[in-house]
Amino acid sequence: MIHQFSDFLSKTDPATLIVYGLVTEPVRVLAELERCADDLAPLTNSYALLSKLVDELRFSSFGWIDITFEQRMALNNSSDLFQLCRRKLLRSVSIFSNPTRQFIDGYLDFVLAQTKTFKDELEEYGSGGEVYGAVDWVFSAWLPLPHAHILLPPEFGHNPPQFAEVDVAFWHDGCLKAVVIEDSSTPIQSKQRRLDYLLDNHPFLDLVSIPKNRIAEGHFPEDAFPATFSRYWEGLALPTGPAPPII
Amino acid sequence: MQETLSKNLTLIGQNDLAGFGGVGEGMALQVASDGRRILWIAHEGPPKNFCGVDVTDPKNSRLIYQTELPHQNMRSNSLEVTGDILAVAYQVYELGLEPAGIELFDIRDPENPKSISTYSTAGPHSRGVHCLWFVDGEYIHMASGAPDFTPRHPRDDQIYQIIDVRNPSKPEEAGRWWYPGTREGDDEAPPERIIPEPLDRLRGGDAFRLHNANIYPSHPDRAYLGYIDGGAFILDISEKSKPKVVSHWSPHNPYPGFTHTVMPLFDRGLLVVTDECVKDDSEDWPKLTWVLDARNEQNLVPISTLPLPPVEEFGHKGGRFGSHNLHENRPGPSFFSEEIIVGAFFNAGIRVYNLKNPYQPDCIAYFVPPGPKNSRVPTIQMNEVYVDENAIIYAGDRWTGGLYILEMDI
After folding, report:
1. What is the ipTM of this complex?
2. At B36, which CATH number?
3. Cβ pair B410:A99 closer than 8 A
4. Mind listing the pLDDT tens digit for each residue in B208-222?
5. I need a labelling partner for B85 at 20 to 30 A (CA). Which of A95, A134, B292, B403 fits?
6. Chain A CB within 8 Å of residue B339 CB
7. Of the partner residues A24, A95, A184, the one whose CB lies closest to the CB of residue B336
């Protein structure tokens, strides 16, 4: 059953299920997953099932984006591909959530700008610049999961299953980075209880709390994240793109 | 004896306001210098003006102040508090009477409010002020007649006026706006009436006048107006002396008028718009609360309404049934949420909605107590609602029930 996969407190096989994107009732997604629990991919365009088998989620991770043949044929270069990634990702952000949209927009601008800021370094990095250009490394950036609903273990409540919500989640070095955009909203008890439980009990979680005014006008608050977040290419031998053609 | 209907709301306190339990459309919370929390409440009508209730312990509220109106031919339906200044709206029942306008009080000592100043809008065609908004300590935004404003229709008298109270002892007009065509001498044609009513009745519907104006310090260049039968307006008030229309939306006709509140949810690009029920026994059904997509503020698009309980169950229980006041996310010791909407719906009580999915608002809590004793109607008539920063709800019955204090479990 999906609960066995998704229990991040499991001592033998801890896993974290994140339902993300345009989700109004994550329980419905969960019910769908339970129907095909024996054949679950670790990442799709609506959920991520994170276990010790999945160290990290990057734009180059397989499963989050579907690219049609026609879309692929329209791509001329890596910049086009990144713009396609941007469009697809932003489609999973609610049109009625300006702060989350601003955060994702700012983040996408930032990771792309890094390929220009560190152009010389990237062209010499890995296998060198003869095959790959600096911009190709952008797909090594960490994949943001907007409107992340993280399934809580049954001990918190299971009828119906309970989810904690954060604005954006990253899976980075085997650790969940839970981004919460702080505004002046009064905490809602039930929502806060679920979030507190997640923060208190998830074994591999960092809370990244960002005041809303720090993401205004497309700014990405780089200093709220570890250095490896900005230098996302480090440790990789080669850049790879998302959604390689299936042959 | 009716039973209380409730879900996820618990009554933790009640106060009959010394037997004068008719609550108008004004509630505001003051945190006094000694730490006490005083809820200031406007009364629905005479003989009382306003009162102060110590809600420091919401389970044991205590009336600490209650005052009389100067005469019985007037009401003070609306009030607001910013810091230690209380602004009260005065509206008369006959044109030309006084006092009509606003009065400011120093409430540093809550047991002894002291008048700071008055600002008169009395005149031959004015009833004075019905509703006011005062959240920044600088400007009062109000629905009022004016001595120099002659409406073409007697019920179109209360226009949008901005009063500069930065010097509270000397309020001054900073700007005004009215629905084009409603003033004698306007170039525009008068608006077509929605549901015409006799001209000799000043109160009630069939009016193109302002009800609520909501202006938030985070967006000081925008005013959100509920203009009764005129619908919802967004004004650019970056130049207060020259408000300009940004956009306008109205469901009237075919819907039966009386837009009351236009509340923006800025981070979500939404507006919540109420049409007030003004007639008993569902005579003006349906009075809805609309959710508008306002991402493009020049093109407002209705996307849903807050679901109400069945009309067959509530429509003929007595009194009004439908939308009215919302908790308005005002600054101060106040609940703020762009997902959770709390409203007063007359005989449908206090209702709490989750707007996470604005296409399908969900009623997640409600509280409908029995009709209070000695009321004019057999049902509760929840008229006003204020939610504090601890999510404690303060609600008022229109006739006799007084103050109901509720705890949310959501």
Report:
1. 0.93
2. 2.130.10.10
3. no
4. 999 999 999 999 999
5. B403
6. yes
7. A184
